Amino acid sequence: MSTGKHYYIEHTKDQRFAVRAKGSERASAVCRTQDQAVSRAHDFNPHDHPDISRVRHTSVGHPDQWRGRRR
Description:
This protein has 71 residues and is an alpha+beta fold. It has a domain of 49 residues. The chain is 15% helix and 27% strand. It is built from 1 helix and 5 strands, in the order βββαββ. A 5-stranded mixed sheet has the order 3-2-1-4-5, covered by helices on one side.
């Protein structure tokens, strides 16, 4: 079921991970772990990699930035 859309993984207030399509208002899926959310995003569009919101401060970024993740 490839949608052809680009997806984002966002950390929610209840400590889950939402999978959202670019420009959407609602999440396409909500998962307990980041790995599950990435896998779900790949189910929606296997030809694209989701962008993942940072959830902590690191030496290369902070929480309001996005990072890419490839399988």
